[in-house]
Structure to design on (363 residues):
């Protein structure tokens, strides 16, 4: 196992800056996810860590060793890709043990390690089968088994779950998380699925156009997105964003939304950004749909007309027109009002987010 340090990592393809100066320090044993939309440079960054792409600039260290110029086989990494790339003519057992046999380990050691990996991944009964006779989820577990059995210093996974159907994806990600916890292998995982990133990771690194936007534990990023991009990308359905006029009167923070004055807690903004706030500053107010609840019982109230209700089982999403602007809130499925009703949605003071529209940064 090793720590991984990316320093000013850069990868250009002609004019395209696929990775544009990435600084990330991944601790030994950590599960770190690179998360971002298609084309933001996740796979390229991962390929640089693997040694499959040569960086245009910057350095990559495993512990204190500079591996930037090393070939993939000199780095002691293992990779799992979206397409499992198993050897079709080999049994599951031979697929998993392939790397070990190349290392010329004794048959006894190989057998022990294959059995341990198969047990952890629930592949014991499938060891004699060919990949063609497995489900997609089982194939991907074999690919994971083949990767971890070699006891790599760093495990690299690029969207390993995206070929699986929804149910299998959830099961397999649980397996991967449990396995990683058990083995303690430093893992860099790539996905564009924010929920997958949240449930799996010790920390999430959100990327946009080759650059790091924010890095931190999933709930820290969820609770305090550093900018509008992260706020919109983390959490589903996406955060409500309203343009508001923000001002201070008598030491209180007031905003006006759809013609109503709403008092916000001073704690919603940073001390420093508060000092710079004049009268009538424009800001973006963000509230997650799950924090905007039908009823009166909270600090910040918004009124509007219900035009759509979307039940998902445990709760129902409410789409509300507030002065010509759409907002999404939630209610208990048993309390959903009639369409067309005028309703009040309420948000707890500590759950509002404010952003500067010019810099897009959190205030
Ligand atoms: N071999 C290449 N030659 C030229 N451009 C490339 C090459 N590989 C990647 N790119 C470009 O670099 C950028 C980042 O690509 P990358 O594959 O790293 O994105 P990604 O975040 O993994 O996206 P996805 O979620 O779609 O897999 C894209 O604009 C892509 O077109
Ligand atoms: Mg990719």
């Amino acid at each position: 196992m090793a720590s991984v340090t990316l320093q000013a990592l850069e990868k250009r393809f002609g004019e395209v800056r696929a990775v544009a100066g990435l600084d990330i320090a991944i601790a030994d044993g950590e599960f770190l996810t690179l998360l971002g939309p298609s084309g933001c440079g996740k796979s390229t960054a991962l390929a640089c860590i693997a040694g499959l792409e040569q960086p245009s600039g910057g350095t990559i260290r495993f512990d204190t060793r500079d591996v930037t110029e090393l070939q993939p086989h000199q780095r002691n990494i293992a990779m799992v890709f979206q397409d499992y790339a198993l050897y079709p003519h080999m049994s599951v057992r031979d697929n998993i043990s392939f790397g070990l046999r190349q290392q010329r380990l004794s048959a006894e050691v190989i057998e022990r390690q294959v059995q341990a990996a198969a047990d952890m991944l629930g592949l014991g009964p499938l060891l004699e089968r060919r990949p063609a006779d497995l489900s997609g989820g089982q194939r991907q577990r074999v690919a994971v088994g083949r990767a971890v059995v070699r006891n790599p210093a760093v495990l690299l996974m690029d969207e390993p779950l995206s070929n699986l159907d929804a149910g299998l994806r959830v099961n397999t990600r649980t397996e991967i998380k449990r396995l990683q916890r058990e083995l303690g292998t430093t893992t860099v995982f790539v996905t564009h699925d924010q929920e997958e990133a949240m449930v799996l990771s010790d920390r999430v690194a959100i990327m946009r156009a080759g650059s790091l936007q924010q890095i931190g534990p999933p709930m820290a990023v969820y609770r305090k997105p550093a900018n509008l991009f992260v706020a919109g990308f983390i959490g589903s359905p996406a955060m409500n964003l309203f343009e508001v006029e923000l001002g201070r009167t008598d030491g209180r923070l007031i905003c006006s939304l759809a013609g109503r004055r709403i008092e916000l807690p001073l704690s919603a903004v940073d001390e420093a950004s508060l000092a710079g706030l004049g009268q009538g500053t424009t800001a973006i107010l963000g509230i997650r749909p799950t924090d905007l609840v039908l009823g009166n019982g909270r600090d910040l109230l918004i009124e509007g007309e219900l035009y759509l209700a979307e039940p998902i089982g445990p709760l129902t999403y409410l789409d509300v027109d507030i002065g010509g602007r759409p907002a999404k809130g939630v209610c208990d499925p048993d309390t959903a009002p009639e369409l067309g009703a005028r309703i009040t949605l309420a948000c707890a003071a500590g759950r509002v987010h404010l952003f500067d529209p010019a810099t897009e940064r959190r205030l």
